[in-house]
Amino acid sequence: MIQRRLVLQGGAALATTALGPFSHAQSTAWPERPVKLINGFGAGGASDVLTRLLAQRLQVVLGQPFVVENRPGAGGNLSMEAVANAPADGYTACSATIGTMTINQYLYSKLSFDPVKDFACVSTFWENTNVLVIPAQHPARNLKEWLTWAQAQRDGITYSSSGIGTTPHLSGAAFALKAGLKATHVPFKGGAQAATELVAGRIDCAIDNIVNQTPLLRSNRVRALAVTYHERWPALPDVPTMAEAGMSNFIVTSWGALILPAATPTAIVEKFSQAVQEIAKEPAMQEKFLNTGAKFVSASPQQTADFAARERIKWRDAVKQSGAKAD
Fold first, then answer.
1. Residue 26: what pLDDT?
2. Of 81, 217, 254, 278, which has the most beta carbons under 10 Å away?
3. Mean pLDDT of the chain
4. Residue 297 has what pLDDT?
C-alpha cells in the first residue's frame, strides 16, 4: 500500500568505517544502554525480519544492544501507542510501517495517538514492492492470460491479504476495480495462513508484499505475474512490472521507518538517523536486505516526515475507494 538497497563477518572493521563520518559530529553520548525497538507485527513477517537485520547492525555501529520487541495487535497500533507514551530519551523506538504511519488513521475511527504530532521521524530503512501471485498449478502463464480467465469466472475471483486495510487488501481492491473484476477479499490473521490457502489453490490470487512471497516463489509454490514497482525488481528480473504486463499506472510500494517519541532531543534523532544512513551505504547490508526481498533505503528526519506526508494523501484516497474499516 512501502520505503538504497549475514550479520557481516567483518562487522568490527565496518563499524570503524561507519562510525567515522558522524560520531564526532554529535555531542550526545546516546546510546549508553540498550535501545528497545518495538515492532507492531508478529515474528517472521516482513517488518520483523528487516527490523532484526537492522538491529544487529546498529548494535555493532552504535555500541549498544538494539532489542526488538514484538507487540502485535490492532494493525500495529499497539506498538505506536507504546512509543508515543514512552519517555522521550531515545531508548524506546518504533519500527513503523506504511500502515501504522499513513494508513491506519483512515481505517480506525479513533486512535490513541497522532501519527504526525506524537512522533519524531528518524529515517526510512526499507522498501519493497508487492507482487501479483497465483497458485503455481494455475494454467495462466502471464497477466493477460490470467485476466482472461478471471473475467470469465461467473462468481468472480478471490484475493487474500493478511488483514483488512493492509496494502495487500487495498492493492487487491484497487486492482480488481481497475481490471473490471468481480472480486471477494478474503482476509486472514497473518501472512502464513494466507499463503497456505493460496498455495493450495483455495484462493485465486494475492498482491502481497514480496518479502512474504519470496520463499514461496523460490520453492515454485506460487507464480509471479507482475510486480507493482516502477521498474523490474532486482530479485525477480524475469517478472515484468504491471505496466510491462499490460496494466499501466499501478505502482504500490511498502516501506518501513524508525520513529521516536516527539519530544526526543534533536541530537539523538540526528545521530540515530545518520547511523542508519551510513549503514545503508554498506554493500553487504544492501545484499542482505535484497536476499529477503527488500531494498535498504535511508533518509534524513525531515525527508522521512515529508515522504510520510505524501503517502498519507495517497492512502487516504485508497482507503476511501475501498470502503475498508477496521472497527
1. 54
2. 254
3. 89
4. 96
**Could you read off the pLDDT of 104-134 as tens digits, one per residue?**
999 999 999 999 999 999 999 999 999 999 9
Cell of 229: 514497482
All residue ranges of the chain with pLDDT < 70 are 1-26
Contact 219, 53 (CB under 8 A): no
My answer on whether omega of the bond before 34 falls inside 30° of 0, hence cis, is: no
CATH number for the domain formed by residue range(s) 129-245: 3.40.190.10
Beta strands in the chain (DSSP E): 35-39, 66-70, 92-97, 119-135, 157-161, 183-187, 205-209, 222-227, 253-261
> What whole-number distance in Å separates Cα of residue 24 and Cα of residue 15?
14
- The residue type found at 8 is L
CATH 3.40.190.150 assigned to domain 11-128+253-322? The reply is yes
Helix (H) or strand (E) holding 59: helix 46-62
Q: Determine the pLDDT at residue 275.
A: 98
Phi–psi pair at 146, nearest 5 degrees: -65, -40
Q: What is the CA angle 280-78-31, rounded to 5?
A: 45
Give the separation between CA 207 and CA 21, rounded to whole angstroms.
Answer: 40
